[in-house]
User: Fold these one by one.
Assistant:
Number 1:
Amino acid sequence: MTTTPPILPTYQAKDFKSDLKPIWCPGCGDFGVVQGIYRALASVGRAPHDIAFISGIGCSSRIPGYTTAYGFNSVHGRALPIAQGIKLANPDLLVLVAGGDGDGFSIGGGHVPHAIRRTLDITYIVMDNQIYGLTKGQLSPTSKRGLKTVTSEYGSLEAPVNPLLYVLAYGANFVAQGTPADMAGLADVIEQAIRYPGFSFVNVQSPCVTFGMEGQQVKAHRATMKTLASINHDPANRLAAMDLAQQYGQSLHTGVFYKNPDPPPTLDGQVRERQRQLAEKAIPRERILDMFVQK
Amino acid sequence: MDDLVIGMAGSGGDGIVSAGESLIAAAAYEGYHALMTKSFGSQVRGGESSCRVRLSTNRVENVGGALDVAVALNWEDFLKFGAELPVSGNTVVIYEAKTGVAPEAIPLVGVAPTEVFAVPIGDMAKQAAGSDKAKNTVVLGLIAGWFGIAREAILRGLRKKFIKKGEELVAANQRAFEMGEQFAREHPLKQPRMMKRPDEKAGKKLLTDGNDMCAAASIFAGCEFFGGYPITPSTEIMQFYTREVWKYGGAVLQAEDEIAGIGAALGASIAGKKAMTATSGPGLSLKTEIMGLASIAELPLVIVDVQRGGPSTGLPTKPEQSDLFAAAFSAHGDVLRPVLAPTSVADTFDVTVESFNIAEQYQTPVLLLSDQEIAQRKETVDPIDTSRFKIVDRRKPTATELSDYHRFRNTEDGVSPISHPGMPGGNYQGAGIEHNERGNPTASGRVHQAMSEKRFRKLAPLKRRTDLFKVEGNPDAALALVAWGSIAGVCREAFLRAKGDGLDVKLLVPWLLYPIAEEVYRDFFASVKAGFVVELAYQPQLYRILRMFVDVPAGIQPFNRSGANPIQPREVVAQLRNASLSLQQPAMPPSSEV
């Protein structure tokens, strides 16, 4: 009988931290998010070079650059399509997608339902701060009705998007929320999301210290947040999750809203299967024109 | 005869396009050179449909001019195609007798064809096959009978087509075909016109359209990913991928929109795979932002734009050459993006492989500008020896380079080693934001200048690729034609005819449209006093771009008109003849000497 060597953690959080200094304002919630990602990635244990981390545009979309993974800071709203192309081209990669609420629920909102229904094994982290920070304080799709900003001088007349309810209604199989006010909880939901086989969504209430509302800062989160575990929410219950998600904007629930215990087959898995089934039917590339010969 | 142009029109259910397909398949089997275009009204089903088939014992590169044979299953539909089905006095006109129109009263304005036949096509079909569905088979019989084309190959094709539905249907169609032949025998042409047989050595040809050729060529070039969104007339490329790409270990994504289509393709390229997307005009506009991203992130990507009439929805089923400005210039920021255009189904293979090679070699998006005619016309193609093509792959970093990896290293030729996720040691940050050699974001004007210079410098060798230009004729000729895309085939025939008529003329057909290869044009124009840049668009776009970069001789003029108004070789020949006459007139002395 051979002895199994003791399992040592292959990576530590610091292995995922790059040398680049974040452009974020001191106290920005995104510092907590990137810490949560370092911890989750260390725990998952994939090498940085096997991770593709794709983002859109916004303060939060600078995040891939602060990791040692392969990063891509793309264009506004298009991180999800790009990430899906990467995953389809190489299903072996761990694919992370991140962006702000504007990226995911305004300019790129049309991509979210499709990313969800395709069930590619990727993780989408939205840093939701209810404001456009990089462009200095305009309304965002998750801004509260009545919010006064530089583009809503007299208060917003529009109702906000509810990201949690949206993705649940679109059929997401893994939906969670976190806040940097609870780092352990945040790292945990990110890790669970990464480990979930299929499309997983994490909404992070990531306060903007410069343009955000006072009641939405880390300190306020700490005072008001309620973990879903503490109220005995069953994450396998999708309708209960939707019920709780309706309180978005009023109560801050953190933890896993919904985790389908019976995940559907992933698209990348099915693509591999199809490739395997059809491989033997390939005409060698150099003879591909034979298919046009009149027989 | 060695060249025959047939045009047929009817209602959607008449199977006229299907007859054309049977005919060209048989022609390809026999070894004829052939080309077929289809044209439809805008209805999804029903409505009018037509096709043109040109058969020849010589190479054919365009649909030809006036019809040798016109088939009208009803006149209303036939006339809707106007200039697409031009009839001359020499045209043999065949039409459905049931239309009740007398041969001397056919509704064609300005021409009086001498051979006109009212044929009870529907009745013959019913008699032979019990259904007028076989009308198109009767038409095939008439054509085979009068012009002696490919009888056995057509029958063979009909058998192949109908055998799945049973022997009875095969026999019924054979009877319908033979009734057509018999009618032709009983009503001989006043002036017999039997087609010459193709050369025995001609051999079988490939038969396909530009979209399928482009897709097949891309797979040959090593493409493993397609992301796109359905849009006429490019969709067949994606359809091909959904059938084939899995076999090569690749994948295809029918995305939720045009932007996601190119986004996914860009993602695949980031992941180290050759990738493409395809679209038409409106989709090109939507993809423009990510094309800019591909330029600054230096990622290989092939974008196919199958041009159609525009702007906006325009004429989505008709050819036009009006996206060249958009292809060359639709960019935010300082961008140089190669644009290539095929001129036929056959060279769509070469140009597609070149597009991938250039994209990989220079880590750049490449725009492949096809057009509706090339994309959707069927064409016989001589077998292509794929071993003469070199496949280029992007420059991977060496172990030494990985030890201190600079993704955007400003090398001498401007091309940097490129890694991809999954490659140990190659980790980098790609971005749409300006970056230094390591990929880190910067707002430094100095770095921006240096990186812009690098991105332009790496593409400079393209302009010296004289193999991307086809030049024919006497190099010292004073008379010249320049043409690109599907119109190049029209101009080549015009060039050959003009030469045959004794005109001293030369022809330049660029595959590489942008960047403008100034020296190629300078050399070509050195001897030129007069001639034309021929384009199918209201604005002569290549002509205008040439004038931005090259001293175009004053005697070179645009000859152009809007899409869906086919330009015929004889018109180009007439233009050349006029230009030649003007050259022969003694030059006017300068006014000061008068």
Number 2:
Amino acid sequence: MSTLETLAADIASGTVTIVDLTHTLDPDFPVIILPPEFGQCARFRMEEISAYDHRGPAWKWHNLTLSEHTGTHFDAPSHWISGRDVPNGAVDEIPVDAFVGPVIVIDCSAGVAENDDYELTPEVIQAWEAQHGTIPEDSWVLMRTDWSKRSGDLYLNMKEDGPHSPGPTPDGIRFLVEGRNIRGFGTETVGTDAGQGAHYTPPFPAHYILHGAGKYGLQCLANLDQLPPTGAILMAAPLKIKNGTGSPLRVLAMVNR
Amino acid sequence: MIEALQLPPRKDPQKRTVSPTRPPEARSRASLGLSAAAAEGRFALQVCAECNAVQYPPRDACSNCIGTDLPWQNISPAGLLLADTVIQTSTKLYFRERTPWRMGTVKLDAGPVVLCHIHSDCKKNAPVTMLNRLDAAGQGVLLAIPTTRTTNMEDDPLLRALSADPKHRRILITDAWNPNTPALATALIEAGAAAVFVGESESWRPHPNRAALAQIDKVEVQPLDVTDTASVKKLAGEFGGKTDILINNARFMRPGGVLERGDTVFARDEMEVNYLGLMRLAQAFGPAMCGRTADGVNASAAWVNILSVNALSNSPDYGCFSASNAAAYSLSQSLRGEFRSAGLRVMNCFVGPTDDAWYQPLPPPKVLPAAVARSVVDGLKAGLEDVWCGDVAKDVRERWMRDAKVLEREMTTGVDGA
């Protein structure tokens, strides 16, 4: 049997399972909030065109309104100022083989349960490597926090001094990008950066460092607790939007059981 | 003396809801000046420009000198009740359902003797004050009330029918985030509202009014986002049948005209909230409210929009916001036409710059939340269609009535320099 035939058989038999890492696109799902004088991310909206009625007797369909960065979404290098000149930096230009690849998961959920502002540092990553081996080059790295289990105003966790949610420190993300040459970094929170990420140097280090190096981001992921630390395959193909800086998408993982 | 109106008992679910009927709507074009004055709560009659004779009823030529220049002018509402009668039956269904009905003649201090509706507490040969109110057909009608206040006088069935009094009514305010919402809710409850529902969008983030609203008795916060059709439909499905007055105070605004922004993102948000939000609300809540305008003491009574006075004439500093309000104003006129047959009033409360974050760089005078609340409650009690809240709104209204083009030229003055 070919590799793919084996894979198909393993999926059919349940030896390989498919895990959905995506939140439902829902009008009530939070989006990132910026100071109100800045442009804002469009919320997901759905307007009925017809529903088997006088507007179209035999069919139902909707028009959608959303941002490239609404819901579970992919960040392309051109999303950030540091990645504006990266070759193939838009979602329609990224080689498609980047959309399927190995993924490792760093479980930070215990630390996050204690501290909303939990930081992913080089030390945390090295401790993970001591247990699971060096992060392979060109892997997706996902930060598991169980943050996706929060709902309502606990998700953004917005306070008067801004949102409080976990994320990588500048050194943490630099370690992954420069030290391990990862493919991309993903989180369960609304962005790849910590809620207080604006106060690091550089501000928003995950965005700045990842995209400046031509790496990708994934955010608003779910079900990371169903992934093993190593060995899964991530499938994350953004919509082919001309010059798109990102895209909502269905993120799936193949996991060996 | 009038018995105080009681909160009605819960509705008998086995009884059919009474369908709305209407008093006669047809008027001559000359007569419509009375309705235009009633829309703003003014008592006005035609006064001959040649001989100053006050005219009644409205006409096309002066009853004294046959002059044809008969502008409408505010005149003294004082008069004396000459005679009255009680009508026991009528061929008109609306009156037939409401007999006995008191009518009479009042000698106005300004001259004419007018035929009008009479408040139950008016005494013959006693002084009365005239009101010019919009009836259920949206036409101005004259009503005499006692010059001195009497107990529970607002609860007279006739006066209540010529108003949209919040007393005992259930009211939906659409936007918990608007800085004017706590003041509106408080004022409506003080005016006797039975319940105030407040729509809250994006409850996934904190907003400054949440704590204030939680402290007001009879306020119930419900999820509602006027940019989300499903959310509007859901709330209407649950509360549409007990929304007697809807106050749409949802507002999205950013300063700037067309060139300042260089994109359409905020302009689209403004249209989504200020214009399409109104449309979504009307499509979801309008039919049920139209079906309940004759539903007893707490029948549905009014639809209220809080609009920028720049809906009338654009202020380029807030050019795109003004345009969205012009669109909403125009839509409110369509709604007046569409709600007319049901007798549901559409009241627009026009405000000048409000005292909140987005108007912060503007100098005073600015409209405080309490002033908006007072204007809305007073407007509902008087059954108005057009309310001008604050000095700026009143000034713009005056200039707009005088010459809309001159106003436009004043509002669009340039600045010197390269």
